Amino acid sequence: MADEETERDRFETGMTIRRAVLGDAHVDNAEASKTDFDAPFQSLITESAWGTVWAGEHFTRRERSIVTLALLAALGHEDEVAMHVRAAQNTGTSPDDIREALLHVAIYAGVPAANRAFKRVKEAYRDLGITFGK
């Protein structure tokens, strides 16, 4: 029973943080698209990523956004990069923070990975109505 309560608590905490970071519209869309096939996956990411990792107290949400974006960029997960650029608007992560993270990606994970990520980040910002000078 204690394990069930802990799992339920992690899920509830995870859903709260997931909504705060990704926004209600994103989470509502994911929930509406959920099927019996992927429901266990949705529970897994809500409990583990959001209810455990993002719920930790050591990093701020801004710091977690920076680390997450750097890792996703380094691994070439471009759709997730775009999603977390949008989420960064909710965590206090600035474009300057993201640029610095991508510069680290270039040095430690490779220029091609950073190049793709810079392109995707600029597209995500453009979609948000945020543009940068020449």
Structure overview:
- It is a single chain.
- Helix 1 crosses helix 2 (about 25-35), helix 4 (about 60-75) runs antiparallel to helix 5 and helix 4 (about 60-75) packs parallel to helix 6.
- The protein is built from seven helices and no strands.
- The chain has helices at about 1-20, 25-35, 40-55, 60-75, 80-90, 95-110, 110-125.
- It is about 75% helix and about 0% strand.
- By secondary structure, the chain is mainly alpha-helical.
- The model has no long low-confidence stretch (mean pLDDT about 95).
Q: Order of SSEs, N→C?
A: HHHHHHH
Outline? globular
CATH classification class of the largest domain: Mainly Alpha
Q: Whole-number radius of gyration?
A: 16 Å
Report the CATH topology name of the largest domain. AhpD-like
Question: Helices and strands: which structural class?
Answer: mainly alpha
Helix content: over 70%
CATH architecture of the largest domain: Up-down Bundle
Identify low-pLDDT runs: none
